[in-house]
Write a structure and sequence with these properties.
heterodimer, A: alpha+beta, 4-stranded mixed beta sheet, 4-stranded antiparallel beta sheet, about 15% strand, B: mainly alpha, Arc Repressor Mutant, subunit A, 9 helices, about 80% helix, membrane (chain A), Anti_sigma_zinc_sf (chain A), Anti-sigma-W factor RsiW (chain A)
Chain lengths: ~425, ~180
């Protein structure tokens, strides 16, 4: 073993890396090599001094010093909701006592708080869905007014069929306000197991509107974008005829409405004009319209009462006035789920529990008429016009998608409208018998 | 050293355990930073940064390594980076002058004259040599542990350590000679 190797052994010895045998060899060499002995002494001395270097300690608690930064890190990690704000508001030299409790609170909130946040988000989404859904109904709601005028005759003439039909609609409408649009499909389940229903809805082209219905002129007015067009149409119309009648309708006690229900629309009509008449097909959309919050300002009192009422004919009609009032304010703002027929003569608007078939007049100043309200057997899935008179739609009934076809049948009589709604059956088209 | 249970608790999200862990290691971290950087303020900064890194990376620690080695690796990396940033091109002469300026301030911090000499000598070592010395003597790490900390081969660690000691001895020997003669 030469001196070089011994020096290395010395270092390893100092580092406790030398085996006992190697240590013995090293000592043997040192014993006979004064130079290495001196080096060894120096190294041992140096190593001892190094081991005795003072164990310096920080003048402050480093952990306490960095605690604010740790808290900030926690906030960035855990609570994304309001991290930056808390950090900025927090003084840099927060004391640990304050931090600990807050941090625990944060920790708790990461578990419970996230759940709450999730619930809130779900609520917001639900709310948006509800409001965006209802608006569709509302956009078309104005139409009923005008319709009401034309349909007045229908209402009276509708007779028993009409009465039987509307109660259902009213029930459904009541559900709608609660936001149970989707659930309302259940109501329809019981009604229809038939796979294909073809409703023949006589177009309620009444004499008043007849001139406007000319097919050629209609395409221009097709409600591709219902909300806009509706607002345009309504602007002039509502301002003139409806303004006077609207306030009166809103104030109408239920009793007045019920009176009308008793098939004596004529008595009230003169003063109230179009609004009092809508009881027929127009009813469903109105009820739906009453839902949106905007309507509260105008007719909350009466509207609520109307909705609360049992689904009798009277209840339905009583709710109508609201629809009239609401329309003016809501129409412009709310989009609708509307399908216009290819030729633009008809359009179908989806309601909570049924869809409303409108006849679109050629004259933009003349409001669309309600042809028919067709109750849905289940939850709405999709719909499209097959041709100018046939609307194919699908509803989900008990997890099964049922496809139905609605066919618009032109008829001069309004009575058929009521008849067709209930006459839906599987198979071919049913054209209601005309009186 | 640090209990494994405490580490596991910290890794599982127990923040109090993690804070306790930091308190247990903060002196070790600071000591390494202080001797490598030879400056209290730099050492405080580096040690805090190291503790924060431990706090944020605790889940990346795996038990196959020693916790103290993992921690020392963090702090030495920070110190070496810091040293490179603050003293990128320091010649020996300049280094000595800086060192002289600091001597008066730090003399009081250190316990004895001999320790001061050694401390001065350590500061004159190249970075890696100094770091190895610090880990060996102030953290009492083995060759393997130092190699793990610095991500260096074992032989390189030995080489650094032997050379560092030799350099220290030479410096101190000259100093002692000078002291005796002068």
């Amino acid at each position: 073993m030469n001196c070089q190797e011994v020096v290395e052994s010395m270092h390893r010895y100092l580092d406790r890396d030398l085996s006992s045998d190697e240590t013995a060899l090293m000592y043997q060499h040192i014993a006979v090599c004064p130079s290495c002995a001196e080096t060894f002494q120096l190294l041992k001395s140096l190593s001892k001094e190094l081991e005795e270097l003072p164990a310096v300690t920080p003048p402050i608690s480093l952990v306490d010093a960095i605690m604010p930064r740790l808290d900030a890190i926690d906030r960035e990690r855990g609570e994304s909701p309001a991290p930056s704000k808390e950090i900025s508001s927090e003084p840099a030299e927060m004391t640990p006592e304050i931090r600990r409790p807050r941090r625990q609170a944060n920790w708790w909130s990461t578990i419970g708080g996230r759940t709450a946040i999730g619930a809130a988000a779900a609520a917001v989404i639900l709310g948006v869905a509800i409001f965006s859904f209802e608006p569709k109904v509302i956009s078309e709601a104005e139409l009923p007014y005008e319709e009401a005028e034309t349909l007045t005759n229908e209402t009276s003439a509708a007779g028993e069929n009409h009465d039987a039909e509307q109660p259902e609609a009213s029930i459904m409408m009541e559900d709608a306000p609660a936001g149970s649009v989707m659930d309302s499909g259940d109501d329809g389940d019981a009604a229809g197991a038939a796979d294909a229903h073809i409703y023949t809805a006589p177009s309620t082209t009444s004499q008043d509107d007849a001139p406007g219905l000319t097919p050629d002129s209609k395409p221009d007015h097709q409600p591709e974008e219902p909300s806009e067009k509706v607002s345009e149409k309504l602007g002039p119309q509502e301002s003139a005829p409806n303004d006077s009648s609207t306030p009166s309708a809103s104030n109408d006690p239920q009793g007045t409405n019920s009176t009308r229900n008793s098939q004596t629309p004529g008595s009230n009509n003169p003063s109230e004009g179009s609004e009092s008449t809508p009881p027929t097909a127009a009813v469903p959309p109105h009820a739906a319209e009453s839902l949106p919050p905007e309507s509260d300002g105008r007719g909350e009192g009466p509207s609520n009462q109307a909705e609360v009422n049992p689904p009798e004919a009277g209840a339905l009609e009583s709710s109508q006035p609201e629809g009239g009032r609401l329309d003016m304010g809501l129409m412009a703002t709310v989009p609708a789920a509307v399908w216009a027929s290819p030729d633009g003569r008809y359009m179908i608007q989806l309601e909570a529990n049924d869809f409303i078939v409108y006849s679109v007049p050629t004259d933009s100043n003349v409001p669309a008429e309600i042809v028919e309200s067709v109750p849905l057997k289940g939850e709405w899935v999709a719909g499209e016009w097959v041709d100018n008179q046939t609307f194919r739609y699908r509803v989900k009934v008990e997890e099964q998608t049922v496809e139905s076809v609605y066919t618009v049948k032109k008829s001069s009589s309004s009575q058929e409208t009521s008849g067709t709604g209930t006459s839906g059956s599987s198979g071919g088209q049913n054209t209601p018998a005309r009186p | 050293m640090v209990e494994q249970g405490l580490i596991r608790a910290a890794q599982s999200g127990d923040r109090d355990a993690l804070i306790t862990l930091l308190r247990e290691i903060e002196h070790h971290v600071y000591r390494t930073a202080y001797y490598i950087l030879n400056n209290e303020q730099d050492a405080l900064d580096a040690a805090q940064e190291a503790l924060i890194r431990v706090y944020t990376k605790i889940n990346s620690y795996e038990e196959k390594a020693q916790f103290k080695t993992w921690v020392q690796r963090i702090v030495t990396n920070i110190c070496i980076d810091k040293f490179r940033r603050t003293k990128p091109t320091v010649s020996i002469e300049e280094h000595e002058m800086v060192f002289q300026d600091q001597t008066d301030v730090e003399r009081e911090v250190l316990s004895g004259y001999l320790a001061q000499d050694i401390h001065e000598a350590i500061n004159k070592l190249p970075d890696h040599h100094r770091t190895v010395i610090v880990l060996r003597y102030l953290q009492d790490l083995s060759y393997n542990e130092i190699a793990a900390c610095l991500n260096l081969p074992l032989n390189t660690v030995k080489s650094y350590l032997f050379r560092a000691r030799q350099q220290l001895q030479n410096m101190l020997h000259e100093h002692q000679k000078g002291g005796v003669s002068g």
